Amino acid sequence: MTTIETLLPQRYPFLFVDEIISATIDEIIGIKTYDNSFIFYQGHFQDQKIVPNVILIESMVQCGGAGITQIGILEKASWGLASLEKVRFFRSIKSSSTVRMVVKTIKVSHKLLKQTGTASCEGQAIIEATWLCLRLT
């Protein structure tokens, strides 16, 4: 099994994918559990541990990038999120939740990566979005 740290440059506390379950050119599936110690709960909502929506987006982007790296489509490089489109939030999630992300690749080249994805928790949709990443190095 490949560890997520070999697929992404991010590290704690900015690593928002625990595992890639499966990765093909058509579909990447990953998970992230936001346990009670998740650092980004601090100061987000007083007395409530709700995962920030921006973190959920970053989780999907990281999942997509890790999957592309795992299947070897692109050489390892640094990528940056360049744009978001068609972002829809359906509900929030609280601590101790495991999020399942399903990402599909729309376009890939040595300079850009465009993907779309959904995240769900306990079978209920949380977010869907489409994004574009550009190669930084």
Mass-distribution shape: globular
Low-confidence stretches: none
CATH class: Alpha Beta
| CATH architecture label name | Roll
Estimated radius of gyration: 14 Å
How many domains, as an integer? 1
Spatial arrangement of strands, main beta sheet: 1-2-4-5-6-3
Average pLDDT level: 91
Superfamily at the CATH H level? Hotdog Thioesterase
Protein model, in words:
The protein has about 140 residues and is mainly β. The chain has a single domain, classed as Thiol Ester Dehydrase, Chain A. It is about 15% helix and about 40% strand. It contains one helix and six strands; from the N terminus they run ββαββββ. The protein has a six-stranded antiparallel β-sheet, covered by helices on one side. β4 and β5 form a beta hairpin. The longest helix has 19 residues.
Notable features of this structure?
mainly beta, Thiol Ester Dehydrase, Chain A, 6-stranded antiparallel beta sheet, 1 helix, 14% helix
Helix-strand layout with pairing:
Layout: E1 19-23, E2 28-34, H1 53-71, E3 79-89, E4 97-108, E5 112-121, E6 124-135
Antiparallel strand pairs: 1-2, 2-4, 3-6, 4-5, 5-6
In short:
The chain has 1 helix and 6 strands. The chain is mainly beta. The protein has one domain: Hotdog Thioesterase (Thiol Ester Dehydrase, Chain A, Roll).
